[in-house]
Amino acid sequence: MTSLKDISKTLKSHNDFCIFAHKYPDGDAVGSSHALCRALQSMGKRAKILMEDEIPQKYKFLEEYIKHEEFQSEFLVTVDIADVKQLGESLDKYSDKIDLCIDHHVTNKKYAADTFLDASAASASEIIYDLINEMGVNIDKEMAECLYIGVSTDTGCFKYSNVTSRTHRVAAELIEKNINLKEINRLIFDTKPKKFIKLEMLIYNSLEYFFDGKCAIIFVTPDMLKSCGVKENEFEGIASIPRSIEGVEIGITIRQKGEGAYKISVRTSEKVSASKICKQFGGGGHINAAGFTFEGKLDNSRTKILDYIEKKIYL
Ligand SMILES: [Mn+2]
User: Fold this and answer.
1) CA dist., res. 79 & res. 85, Å (int)
2) What's the confidence (pLDDT) of residue 98?
3) 169 pLDDT above the threshold of 80
4) For residue range 258-296, what is the model confidence (pLDDT) as tens digits?
5) Residue 26 alpha carbon to ligand 1 centre in Å
């Protein structure tokens, strides 16, 4: 497998980079790509970032941390992209031309000519932190802010099970770069647009309990999103709402995607395997966070899942 040293050498030997992050970019996609871009630019190289969708408002200030220039890129790198399809339609033309992929997803499809995969890293930003150090670049305040956003958002503010002591060590070293810690945390974790509050009210209205409150289901429909002015995929973290209720072991989020098409997310406590439930319906994922898609009548899908849970888990 390619080592961090190898990819550091490879990057040093090229000059004109294009860095790709996935569609519907999250904090890790934005943070890791911008930190790498700024690091390469600080080495006197040319680098730019391409992603299908606009950067969410709360991460937009990171765009000012890089120089924006037009040039013909010669080396193509993806960060935080497990499957080349996540580039999105408008960037699909690059899908068979990626020279290097830097990622932390176990499910990585190895679509690039070269891949650096560290599945033990909680975020791509954690890897980029090591890489920038390996390249001998001094991590400045701006790079540190990009990386802190990636590290903190991909771990749900250091709460998810992917967090290790290394995650905290990286975060500690980033904080030592004098980042605007309080302001960034407030902006990212303690601030919600009013339209999200409106949507949450509708979501809580749809909440139903089953099996003595051990299972909770919420619904999200395109109409609900539309009436609140929230774009599809704009509101992260919906799927964690039902599981966060006291006593709930299985939290299910049913999102209607179109006429008769549903995306179902399952979040479970330690006792129950979400991936086992989802596999039963043709999906998959992590042990306590998984999902599947369903086509047909909503009532049928709900009955089927509840039947399965009742038979396999609570009988
Ligand atoms: Mn990530």
Assistant:
1) 13
2) 98
3) yes
4) 888 999 999 999 999 999 999 999 998 888 889 999 898
5) 8
How close is the Cα of 31 to the center of ligand 1, in Å? 10
The answer to whether residues 75 and 174 belong to one domain is yes
Which distant-in-sequence residues (6+ apart) come within 8 Å of 113 by Cβ?
98, 99, 100
Residue 148: is its pLDDT beyond 70? yes
From the CA of 104, how far away is ligand 1's center (Å)? 7
Host domain of residue 231 = 194-312
Q: How far is the CA of 105 from the centre of ligand 1 (A)?
A: 7
307 alpha carbon – ligand 1 mean position (Å): 34
Distance 80 CA to ligand 1 centre (A): 5
293 and 245 in one domain? Answer: yes
> Which of these three, 167, 189, 211, is where a domain ends?
189
Q: Is the per-residue pLDDT at 162 higher than 90?
A: no
Q: Please give the backbone phi and psi of residue 20, each rounded to the nearest 5 degrees, phi first.
A: -110, 140
Distance 146 CA to ligand 1 centre (A): 13
Q: Report the separation in Å between the CA atom of 79 and the middle of ligand 1, taken as the mean of its atom positions.
A: 8
* Exposure of 190 in the CB half-sphere (CA atoms within 13 A): 6
Tell me: pLDDT of 125 over 90.
yes
Q: Are residues 129 and 257 in the same domain?
A: no
User: Among residues 280, 286, 273, 272, which one has the least CA distance to residue 307?
Assistant: 280
